[in-house]
Write a structure and sequence with these properties.
Length: 351
Amino acid sequence: MKRSVSSSGSRFPKSIFWIVLAVLLVTSGISVGIIVGMQEAEWAPIIQTHIMVFYWILASFILTLLIRARMKVTYDQPLQKISDATKRVASGDFSVRIDPIHEEGSQDYLDVMIHDLNAMIAELGSIETLKTDFVSNVSHEIKTPISVIQNYAQLLQSPDLTEQERNDYSRAISDAAMRLSSLITNILRLNRLENQKLAPSAVEFDLSSQLTECLLGYESIWEEKNIELNPEIEDDVRIRSDPELLTIVWNNLLSNAFKFTEEGGTVSISLKEDGDTAVIKIRDSGCGMSTETVKHIFDKFYQGDTSRATQGNGLGLALVKRIIDIVGGTVQVESTPGEGSEFTVRLNVNN
Ligand SMILES: Nc1ncnc2c1ncn2[C@@H]1O[C@H](COP(=O)(O)OP(=O)(O)OP(=O)(O)O)[C@@H](O)[C@H]1O
Ligand SMILES: [Mg+2]
């Protein structure tokens, strides 16, 4: 929220003006009285001079003390509060908030500074929480496959294992290693994409072929799960974009569609050119998602159904969203629990 500081928002205390005026008037009046009195009493000029010098030194001293007291209230105390708060923030306490000095409506620039400082501390706190959450999520995701590897490696050491057991254990180790490797690849990708400020280098390529190729990569899965496939990919849809990044998008959306669809289900993929826009839809007849899950699917490490949490790390759709933002498209989801989900990506063909 932007705040404006009115001209009456000056910090100069009006009381100082009145204190100085009153003290000067009173002391001048008194000094005139003293001078007249001393002349009437016919005191020696040297004594009169000394008394006046002493009088003005005393008057200046009192005036300075009064101004100092006002300045302390106006500047020192609030700045001391700000300084204490920033010290606490520097030592890692992001819960501090500084109270404004004046009520809303009669605030000056120091109140605005306090308000902005509070907003800054809150923002720093949320970044810190995000960082801590990220580190604990990564550690958790790394720990799980490592303990799987550790357990199966121990089991493999047993001398009397059947051939079947030996195969099962080594497959479990290899799956866990693959999971670790895909986790690290996704984290590195996401990190690189989050730091990428510039638009990716766009080249013209055939989106129809790219989608078909990605789809073919899942042949073994749709055969194994007996999934019916409905491809409706228009031929020769050419697009100017980053092919490498878009491959990541299709692979993540397709891998989810095949992963969350039961045996005997259906997966449809369509590509249509609608004016300047390429519309890609990936639909499945899988488990679908609740409205609550849909709200979070693009968050890092979010996995809706915990029973499936062993598959993947919840980074796929975070990557998809980031890439679609970078290439300047949109991604939308429609899903009904128990019926399936549909992801729609729209991309401008001449980026
Ligand atoms: N097609 C889908 N059908 C049902 N649920 C889905 C679908 N796509 C995504 N989800 C839900 O969204 C969550 C996040 O998806 P995302 O792709 O980010 O992670 P993941 O697939 O669990 O793991 P990863 O992609 O890292 O392997 C999933 O765990 C799942 O709950
Ligand atoms: Mg996924």
